[in-house]
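Worked Example 4.2. Consider the chain below.
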Amino acid sequence: MNRQEALQIIKKHLPEKRYIHTIGVTDTAITLAKQYGADEKKAEIAGIFHDYAKYRPKQEMIDIINEEDLPKDLLMYSSELWHAPVGAILVKKEIGITDEDILRAIRSHTTGRARMTTLEKVIMLADYIEPNRSFPGVDDVRELAKLELNKALIVSIQNTIQFLLNKNELIYPKTIETYNDLQRNLNQEVN
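Applying the procedure from the previous section yields the following C-alpha cells:
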C-alpha cells in the first residue's frame, strides 16, 4: 500500500484537524526513523494508521476490548487510551495490514510498553512532537528528539504523567512501566 492509498483510507475516518495531525505524525515518524534506524516505510504506514480507531464509538471500542485478546484493565482508565490497541486490531481486520511491527507500533503509541522497539518509540514520540502540537514542554522535547530518542521519550512521558497528575487522572501502569524501562536503560548506559 502506498502513501496516497493509505491517506485516502484514513481520511474517511478522521475529522480534518486529526487528518492534519496524522500527516504531521507520519512525516515526523519518517524523519525519526531515518535518524534512529527504524524502517521508514513501516514508520510511514504506522504513522498514517496510528489514530485509525480514534473516533470509533466508545461502545464499539469497549466491545472490541472485551471480545479480543486485549488487557481488560484498559476499561478502568481513560478512554483516550483505547483507540491504540483497538486500532491495531481494526487495521489488521479492516485494512489487511498484518505486519506485527506496524501493528505493535499502533498498539503501543498511547501507553508505551517495556522493551519497545525503535519503531514503537518513533511512533509514540512522533505523535507527541508532530509540528501541529502546541503545549508547554513540546518544543523542549522536539529539540531533545534531534539528539536522543530515549531521552526525548522519557521527557515526553514525564510531561504526560505530570499532566495527568495535575488533572487528578489515573495513570495506566504500562505508561509507568515504559518510563521505568527507558530510565533504567538510560541509567545503565551512564554507569
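The chain has a mean pLDDT of 96. The CA atoms of residues 86 and 118 lie 21 Å apart. Compare this with Example 4.1 before moving on.
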